[in-house]
Design goal:
Blueprint lengths: L1 E6 L2 H15 L5 E6 L12 H5 L6 E3 L9 H21 L4 E5 L3 H10 L6 E4 L10 H11 L2 E4 L2 H11 L5 E3 L16 H8 L6 E5 L10 H15 L4 E5 L7 H14 L4 E4 L4 H10 L2 E4 L2 H5 L8 E4 L12 E4 L3 H12 L15 H11 L5
Parallel strand pairs: 1-2, 1-4, 2-3, 4-5, 5-6, 6-7, 8-9, 8-11, 9-10, 11-12, 12-13
Helix pairs in contact: 1-13, 3-4, 4-5, 8-9, 8-12
């Protein structure tokens, strides 16, 4: 069975990885990686190198992002991605193509495949993020897909409601948590020495723009900057940089200014990679920001999270998440609250066992019916 895997960012590739490793080592499958988006962006770490180091026999590289991140540039990048993938789908055929999540460039690649009858298998459909335009892209991807692997039963029900059919819809859990109970972090001294992390508690932070509130992002970035500057007096900050979203540069500039103003209290990371990021989450005291990893994964690392703003609004949460607005005093208050809590001891609603194995079993079983 010939399968393609669409990957447009460091984030989705890290989630895919346990599934890709199993597919790569299963003679039933012939796998080809289709890399595009920020993987080919120098300013976002040129993470295509990470994929190449994992020794796939075939990696397609499709460059289609415009460097600017204003609304016109994002829309133009979407159109350019459609054009590039129209040519790609004309020349390449697969029995099934995996796609993941809700990025605008992922949506563009998939929309281009509709006239060609490309059969897509979508991971993480049915979710809701009201503060991000990605919410629309995610649902577009769902409607274009033939197989659906959702993270919870509630999301499965949402996909069935959207598509009008239960055929090909499976609740398997979050792939990013595959074998999470067996995860072993990098040894603390090695990890801290590698990144020059001081031997003290730190907060792991990721902020992305609110793409449904573009007129507010300058204000939100200022609130983030002002709050983190005060919180950094109490705890060291490790910040992973924003994705290529509309107005992401506004947050980048604020974060870089924080580093310039407080060079000994902030560490900026362009691309950790999955193992290093999970190790950082393991050693972190708390998480702060508006990224999906705080919602999907942090509970499995026993971490409390301050989730800021509306980007993740509507997405189901475990009980480790404290929500607040993009307001300096609210962010500081929420951080002070969770710093007193210690480790989170509840369950992660996104966790199920053997996610990648179950996906492979379903694909093999339904192969002839896809």
């Amino acid at each position: 069975m010939k399968v393609g895997v669409l990957t447009s960012s460091r984030a989705d590739y890290g989630i895919y990885f346990p599934l890709l490793e199993k597919i790569k080592n299963d003679n039933f499958f012939e796998i080809e990686i289709i890399a595009f988006g920020t993987h080919l962006s120098r300013s976002h770490g040129y993470t295509i190198n990470n994929i190449e180091n994992d020794n796939y026999k075939c990696i397609h590289k499709i460059s289609s992002l415009i460097s600017n991140d204003d609304q016109e540039s994002i829309s133009s990048s979407y159109g350019l991605t459609v054009l590039k993938f129209a040519d790609f789908w004309e020349q390449n055929t697969y029995d099934l193509v995996f796609c993941l999540g809700d990025r605008f460039e992922m949506s563009a690649a998939i929309q281009a495949g509709i006239p060609f009858g490309v059969k897509f298998a979508h991971l993480h459909g049915g979710e809701t993020t009201l503060g991000a335009i990605d919410n629309i892209y995610r649902h577009q991807i769902t409607l274009a897909s033939d197989l659906h692997f959702t993270a919870t039963e509630a999301f499965k029900d949402k996909v069935i409601e959207m598509t009008g059919s239960s055929k090909g819809v499976f609740s398997v859990g979050s792939l990013s948590l595959n074998n999470i109970k067996e995860f072993k972090p990098i040894e603390k001294k090695i990890f801290f020495d590698e990144y020059n992390i001081p031997d003290e508690d730190f907060a792991l932070i990721t902020f992305h723009p609110e793409t449904m509130s573009v007129n507010e992002n300058s204000h939100y970035a200022k609130m983030m900057k002002d709050a983190l500057s005060i919180i950094s007096e109490r705890i060291f900050m490790i910040i992973t940089m924003p994705n290529a979203d509309t107005q992401g540069s506004i947050y980048r500039e604020a974060i870089i200014q924080l580093k310039n103003d407080f060079p000994n209290r902030f560490l900026l990371i362009e691309n950790f990679g999955k193992i290093n990021y999970f190790s950082a989450m393991h050693y972190a005291k708390i998480l702060i920001g508006n990224t999906s990893s705080g919602i999907l994964e942090a509970a499995s690392f026993c971490k409390y999270v301050v989730n800021v703003g509306d980007r993740q609004k509507g997405r189901a949460q475990s009980k480790n998440v404290v929500n607040c607005n993009f307001d300096q005093s609210e962010i500081i208050s929420a951080v002070n609250e969770i710093l007193t809590k210690g480790n989170f001891k509840g369950e992660n609603i996104y966790y199920k066992e053997n996610v990648s194995d179950n996906i492979i079993k379903i694909v093999k079983k339904d192969y002839e019916n896809i």
